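Lab notebook page, bench 4
Experiment: in silico fold of construct C2
Operator: M.H.
Input chain length: 450 residues
Purpose: comparison with the prior construct
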Amino acid sequence: MENRSFDLVVIGTGSGASTAAGKCAAAGWKVAQIDDMPFGGTCALRGCDPKKVLVGAADLIDWNRRMNSHGIRSDAAIDWKDLMKYKRSFTDPVPSSREKGMMKAGITPFHGQAQFANDATLRVGDYQLTGKHILIASGAKPAPLPVDGSEYLAASTDFLELDELPGKLVFVGGGYISFEFAFVSALAGSEVHIVHRGERPLEGFDADMVDILLEKATDLGITVHLEAEVQSVVKEGPGYVVTVSQNGTSERIRGDLVIHGAGRVPNIDNLNLQKGNVTRGKSGVAVNEYLQSVSNPRVYAAGDAAATEGKPLTPVAGYESHMVASNLLDGNHRKAEYPAQPTVVFTIPPLASVGLTQQQAEDQGLDFEVHTNKMYSWYSYRRINESHAAYKTIIEKRTGRIIGAHLLGTKAGEIINLFAMAINQGLTSADLKKMIYAYPTHGSDIPYMV
């Protein structure tokens, strides 16, 4: 086994890993990066970016349908093979490009599963890598499900590689993955079921906005089974049968493919953390305020692999990677302080949120007012015949500060960034009302939301 020594050894090649690796290499450090999957990380290869390509096509279909008899005559349709070919034009070049970029930056790449041999050493294939510092940024993986036949569940990665879209799809779990892919599939012509064990799906989002999104799902023919628990998945013929328990009764749902959309967990089980004296928490590697391991000071963690207050989002992983790089290069001085983090479910229309929900504001005992309304009759939405659009803003009474915003509708993913800026800069409803906005735009609706 060949022994190699580095100033920094990074596990992962995604957003939580690459920023720190690049900054340290630019500072003259000897850096290694390890990944047991194609280089590039989840977002670029198996998540955000390829997903949004599919969502864009589905959005066009929905827009086309909405405008039928409103000036548009032809019916658009998704050619799945061509769409996947287009998607691969984004993803296929990434691993090679990323590795070439690493090598150009002076970073040494290693392919394989990293495992701790001791508190300073990782084994990767035939190599033993010793690091003065180690960064764990290995991302997340589908959460294990205690369901008979769970081995038949496809992952989101599998969905993103389908050469043919099955006619009937069953999604297990009511989170981001299930809803985003369900909307894409329904608009591409598939019969779709979502099975969720809770009272309502998308639990981190405002309940009223989710209810309106569910109306849109129903309009598209998506069947959402709530308070329904999957008992088993059985292979039957060319497809599968999902047995679901709901309200004391049992139902069998047939599907050509059953997809895991019931959450993700840190991808750290195979790292032999115990041998590295790295303590893990409930949601990842246990770290202090500097994103440093609480048990092994040479180890840091970022992104989905770290137990932090940051949401499991690509921009948050990049933000944490910046902090780790700064603390590695200049000593621990940057503490993990998280601004309001906007998040979007890219359904059609998208659902977006930032800051506190109404329930959270109530739980904190804040004195606030709620502004909420449906927007489908507003010009911005009526001109595109958008039938499901709404907002809810949470405003602190004493100061007038925006403390939460929740949007459903076309461009919600863009408008939510403006609300995130308002929350993080302490802007008030009066500040937003006195601005002059470009018109007619969706952004120019903001004064009417506050």
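Observations: DSSP finds 14 helices and 24 strands in the chain. The first strand starts at residue 2 and ends at 11.
Next step: discuss at group meeting.
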